Amino acid sequence: MHAIRRQSGFFARIFPFLLLAPALIFIFFVQLYPGLYTFYLSTRDTEGAVSKYIGFKNYDLVFNSAIFKESVVHTLIFLVGYVSLTLIAGLLVALVLNRKLRWSGLYITLIFIPWVLSDVIVGYIWKLYADPGSGLLSPFFALPILGLNGDPLLIASPPESYFEGIPFPPAPAMYYVIFAAAWKALPFTTLLLLAALQTVPKEVTESARIDGANHRQLFFNITLPLILPTLLVTLFNLTLGGMNGVGMIFSLTGGGPGSATEVLSYLLYSIGFGQLNFGRAAALSVVIFAVNLTLIILSLRISRSRAELI
Predict the structure, then answer these.
(1) Is residue 265 within 8 Å of residue 246, measured between CB atoms?
(2) Does some domain include residue 3?
(3) CATH number, residue 257
């Protein structure tokens, strides 16, 4: 009798783990194993079927390459422009839609269309817009005020750099990529911020209006602090998406002109699938993973700090 009870008690303790086992096995083979194999591959030099251990030489080659340093600057420029433009535009559109306009449901449906398109499709669409022969936006890009000197936007050379060894200011194509990427991400950002705006208590804003607060004071002293957690989540979500997105660059500019729009994610693609240098590509992917992990930890810490303050 005691033996039966001991067996049933043991089974009761391991039963939850048995229920989780299929999901854990799936996660291991889909996420954990590829990650571990990527780190293993980053320490090897692979040529065809021949593979040899070279330690951290791939990391040294990646960090000391000129194209890596240039891609880091391109990535920072892209992230700052893309995240800033998307957040500001998304907040402005959300503020307008929060006014309960007529047909607001239709407007929300229409602005959500870009979100359901893939990055590659969006890149090809905006590439057609900039086509010098038949593009919808090509007459605008031909205006002399843009300083393209008659060159097509996507192949116009970048201006002379302000700093030696740092590609800044960026090529005109980078601004175009930032605008296209922001257009793609705008719907989801708008919906997140609109949902946050609708949680702001009406009683608080009405009391502030009675006390004489104007629109600017209402926004900066009441609305903005209340939606700040959603703004932070959106900020990190956009940063992670921009850090890892490659489809837009692939279909819109291909990293060009030259390497003027080659961000880290596209550099990873070009090293791995263009040069077939999988060891060096794996080393770069580990570096990108470390950056992503840092952003995620930072996001969780900020969210936890905000929750403790509340």
Answers:
(1) yes
(2) no
(3) 1.10.3720.10
In-domain check, residue 14: no
**pTM here?**
0.88
Say which DSSP state 143 is in: S
Percentage helix, strand, coil for the chain under 3-state DSSP, each rounded to 5? 75, 5, 25
| CA–CA separation, 66 and 275 (whole Å) | 16
Query: Is 6 strand, coil or helix?
Result: helix
| CB-neighbour burial class of residue 309 (10 A; exposed 0-12, middle 13-18, buried 19+) | exposed
Beta carbons within 8 Å of 245's beta carbon, 6+ residues apart:
119, 181, 265
In terms of residue numbers, what domain contains 164?
Answer: 58-309
**Contact status, residue 304 vs residue 248, Cβ threshold 8 Å:** no
Per-residue pLDDT of 199-233, as tens digits, reads: 888 888 888 888 888 888 888 888 898 898 889 88
CB atoms within 10 A of CB 203: 8
Q: What distance in Å separates the CA atoms of residue 13 and residue 8, rounded to the nearest whole number?
A: 9
Long-range Cβ pairs for the range 62-68 (8 Å, 24+):
62/280, 62/283, 62/284, 62/287, 67/259, 67/262, 67/267, 68/264, 68/267, 68/284
Q: For residue 201, say if its preceding peptide bond is cis, omega within 30 degrees of 0.
A: no
Q: How confident is the model at residue 8 (pLDDT cuts 50, 70, 90)?
A: low
CA distance 305 to 308: 5
Strand positions, DSSP E, 12-82: 44-47, 50-53
Q: Quick one: angle between helices 104-111 and 66-97, nearest 10?
A: 170
How many domains does the structure of the chain reveal? 1
In a domain, 272, yes or no: yes
Residue 92 lies in a domain: yes
* H/E element, 154: none
